[in-house]
Amino acid sequence: MRTWIVAGNWKMNNTIAEAVALAKAIKDGTATLKRGEVILAPPFTSLQSVSQTINDSRVALAAQNMHQEEKGAFTGEVSPVMLKDCGCTHVIIGHSERRKYFHEKDADVNLKVKKALACGLKPIMCVGETEEEREKNVTRAVVGRQVKEGLRGVEKINNVVIAYEPVWAIGTGKVATSAQAQEVHSFIRVILKDLFGDGAASNTRILYGGSVTKDNIGELIAMEDIDGALVGGASLKADGFLGIIKNIAEKK
Ligand code: 13P
Q1: Using one digit for the tens of pLDDT, what is the confidence trace for 177-235?
Q2: pTM (2 decimals)?
Q3: Which residue has its alpha carbon closest to ligand 1 atom 5?
Q4: Around Cβ 43, how many Cβ atoms within 10 Å?
Q5: Which of 5, 9, 90, 244 to mutate for ligand 1's pocket (most ligand atoms within 8 Å of CB)?
Q6: Which of 37, 129, 133, 165 is catalytic?
Q7: Which of 58, 120, 151, 155 is deepest in the core (most CB within 10 A)?
């Protein structure tokens, strides 16, 4: 039985004071949850403060990116060792904004996934097609390649979370239908079966991301292969994010 996950990707938002206030509200709002995992991914600058805020709660901490080396002359970068030092247990890797604006390729994603695992961080590896790719009917080819290349050389998948985030649904208000999302999620699970075997594939959490709100999560989470959500905009307000968590907790 897979445990659901709701992760909030705050992207480049929130000062330290704002981050701490939001994290405190999420901590308080999830205090009575019995199952499920809630993860917050603030910007680097507030990781440590958020870590202290959520200490002793069921809320976990993720970074939004990392460098694939542990240390060295890489000006402006942050290493997995530093993220662990700040209290992170997870790290988002290969988000489509990293792919689009910072030119991250599948090979970079793969190096980061492997390094995160080696350092004891759980990667939340993002995949997803653009609108143009969906229109050209190459969604499976693109997502299949991203999953296979991103996980190349990974031996065990039990600490990996996959997030399917169709690029056309991110920040656009154009959420994928539950059928569209389920179709890709089950396709991803088939690939995982090929790569890692039945048991490992059926235990892997696959999250949906892209314009998730408390009003549309109900339909998505009812799908067999959707194990939670990676939430952007709606994770920036406690009410909206807690509403998503509540709707998932009631259904899964
Ligand atoms: P939105 O929820 O704002 O569409 O963003 C999704 C996302 O990119 C989460 O990583």
Answers
A1: 999 999 999 999 999 999 999 999 999 999 999 999 999 999 999 999 999 999 999 99
A2: 0.98
A3: 232
A4: 18
A5: 9
A6: 165
A7: 151
